[in-house]
């Protein structure tokens, strides 16, 4: 499992939510903000993962095309 960086804003909101004594109204605001930030982060992680899978697939296709080309030249 790898490490994931979070924004300073999210870190501070998490500290406030878990360590400080806040009233219900503040707690609801913090929950909303934390949820939005975490969803944002998850979206970025998913997009990054999909992009790297795309790059790997593209590289694999290029490799296969190059191998076919080399094999066709070797047969001559």
Summarize the structure.
This protein is mostly helical and 76 residues long. It has one domain. It is built from two helices and no strands.
Structural features, described:
This protein is an all-alpha fold. It has one domain. It is built from two helices and no strands. The longest helix is centred in the middle third of the chain and has 51 residues, at 24-74. The protein is rod-shaped and about 80 Å long. The N and C termini lie far apart (49 Å). The relative contact order is 0.09. The model has no long low-confidence stretch (mean pLDDT 90).
What is Rg? 23 Å
Tally the helices: 2
N-to-C SSE series? HH
Residue stretches low in confidence (pLDDT < 50, at least 5 long) are none
Please report which band the strand proportion falls in: under 5%, 5-15%, 15-25%, 25-35%, 35-45% or over 45%: under 5%
